[in-house]
Each structure stands twice: as structure tokens, then as C-alpha cells.
Amino acid sequence: MSEALPAYPMARAAGCPFDPPPRLRKVDPISRVRIWNGSTPWLITGYHDLRAVLSDQRFSADPRHSGYPHQSASVEARQSTAYRAFIAMDDPEHARLRRMLTANLSVRRAEAMRPRIQQLVDELIDDLRAGPAPVDLVSAFAFRVPSLVLCDLLGLPPADSDFFRVAAATLLSWTTPVTETLAISTELRAYLLNVIAARRQSPTDDLIGRLAAGPLAAGEATIDEILDLIVQVLIAGHETTGNMIALGTLALLAHPDQFAELRDTDDPGVVTTATDELLRYLSVVHGGRRRVATADIEIGGALIRAGEGVVLTLEAGNRDETVFPDPDRLDIHRRSRGHLAFGHGTHLCLGQPLARVELQIVFGTLYRRLPTLRLAVPFDSLEFARETVVYGVRSLPVEW
Known about the structure:
By secondary structure, this protein is α+β, with helices and mostly antiparallel strands. The chain has helices spanning 22-26, 47-55, 73-79, 93-102, 107-112, 114-130, 137-142, 144-154, 161-172, 178-201, 207-216, 223-253, 256-264, 268-282, 314-317, 352-369, and strands at 30-32, 42-44, 59-60, 135-136, 289-293, 297-299, 302-304, 309-312, 374-375, 384-385, 392-393, 397-399. A hairpin with a 2-residue loop joins strand 6 (297-299) and strand 7 (302-304).
């Protein structure tokens, strides 16, 4: 019977890199799929059903549960090691660790960083304007922004930002061999252990310094737990924002009227609305968030039994026409704030305030300062990263 079920993940349509796979749109809002190991978890595609699952703590995020639908054999092997991300934990353990980051990633603190982020973005654009063109916007700008912001936030030297990006990309890939993942994870953790030790000797007012002087010094968290929190901030903050900048720019270049409007506006409200619409439209965290039921639960008329896995396709929920009329159309004036790009419920992305500020500054600055920005290669020659948690364009050659 499982052989007759659609295989997941599904392929995107050729020439439609911004849209979810067409097969994904044709399945029922709750249905079964077959994944790499032959198991048949539930696939959830409807907006309201996704919110219901993400809000229900009877659906566990812990990959140690039997029936958990891992993304690949490599990911399953990694998640069986001693290292556990707090985002792959359930409450109360998840909530205890999450609280240690909440104040450091709040809306207030993100807004306080806005002038510094604006300065960093302007300096990077100065470098673009002073250098040769064409240039790869992915490496020269899109990933440089979150790298430098995270170095500021964590108190890490910008000179090491390339190492952090390589580590993030490696750890989020579905296909990286386990030995390679463990090697770079060990290297990153050793690096950060030295930083934490230095902060304990000489306290600093940055995220690592505050974690070292706060929960670690008070015995509220172990050194491994503090390490995990820092690693999660580094990894998630790099890949999501970097890919959104690059893919968002490409989407706007493919919609020249909206590119022009965003370029020419001096209304911050338009930039804010456009940012959320791009987040909804692109939904770069793809491939399905994973859960496993710990009890028999009815969702959308389907009975999901204890021990059955669930794959949550947020990109499909963000194209649900019952919530977002004409969902396949990019509309920078659409009120999209209720989108699922950052998830929902207790595991809602902690870094969303900072990500929003970064994206608003980039989308409100880059095109205004490079008003003739355009692709330097044919659109159909671009390659996209698919075998990873965060979807994006691998390289984006541009000129102006």
C-alpha cells in the first residue's frame, strides 16, 4: 500500500523556483506520504491544520520517539548522537532553555540593534558599489549581512564569519555524511568553549557573555546546554536570513513592477508589509517540520494515532487560498502577518524579531542604493539548494 502513496519530498515544477511542488498542492490537507525509509507519516498542508498541530504539545518535536519521521538517513544518524538541539525538545525542557534566550532576542533588543544593522548593510553596499560587477550577491552580500549581525550579537570576531557560515550550511544539509557533520560540530563547539571560558574570566555585554554570567554562572544550565543555545542561534540565524535576502531579491527581480515600487518608496510601512509578504511567498524553511504523535489525536477529521509521524509543510500552508486569496501571486501590499514562515506555537522561531529587522533594512535599502540592480545571467541558469532544511539560490550573479 505504501508504494502507491506519493513520495515525499516532492519535486518543484521546472521554471517555478518560488512555488511549492505542484503535487504538494494536489494532495488532501491531511494525507499519507512515503518517505526515504519506507515509512508513511501524515502530511499536513492546510493552514489551520498546521496551526492546530503546532499548538498541540501532544505532537512531540523530540526525534528520539519511535515513529519520528527523520528527513534522511544522515539526519537520523546525527540526531541519535549525544548532541540535542533545544528546538528538538518538548516542554518543560524546551521552555526552560528557551527562556534563557528570550530577552536577548526580543523585539525591543532587535529594534535597539536597528541603527547598527543599518550601518552594516550600508557598508556592505558601499563595498559592492566600489567593487567590480557582476558579483555574486549570495556570497558578497546576502550571507554577509546575517554573519556580521550575528558576530555583533554574540560578540564574535567578524574575521571568523566564513567558518560560521560553512558550519551552518553543513549542519543543516540533509545529505552531509555523519562523520563530516560530527567533525565540524566538534570544531565549532571547541571554538565556542574557548569563547565561553574567556567570557567567564572577563565578562562582556553580548549574548555569550550574558549567558555565561547568567544561567551558566547560576547553575541553571550546563555548559553543553549553553553551547547548544549558541550553536542554534548561529546556525538558524545564518541560513534563514541569508537565503531570504537572496531569494527575496530574485523574486522581486522576477516581478519588476513590485521591485520598482519597493525601490522607490520612502514609506517604512510598505517595506514592513513587503517583508512579511516575501516571507509568506517564499517560506524558505521547507521540507517539512517534523513531529510524532504521543496520543491518539483527531486533526481536520483524520485520526492520527500515537506513534505516527507527521510532516508539516509550512510552505503549503502559506499558499492556502482559504487564508491568502490568490496565494501564488506576490503582492507586496498584502497583509500577510499571520503567515507560518516562522512556525507557530511553542516552537515559534525565537529569532524572528531580529530576522524581520534585518530583512526590512535590506529590502528598504539595497534596491534604493542600487536602483538598476539586475540579473547578470539568464534566470533559467540559476541553481537552487534543495537538499537542506533552508531553501535558496546557490549563486545570484547581479550587476547594476
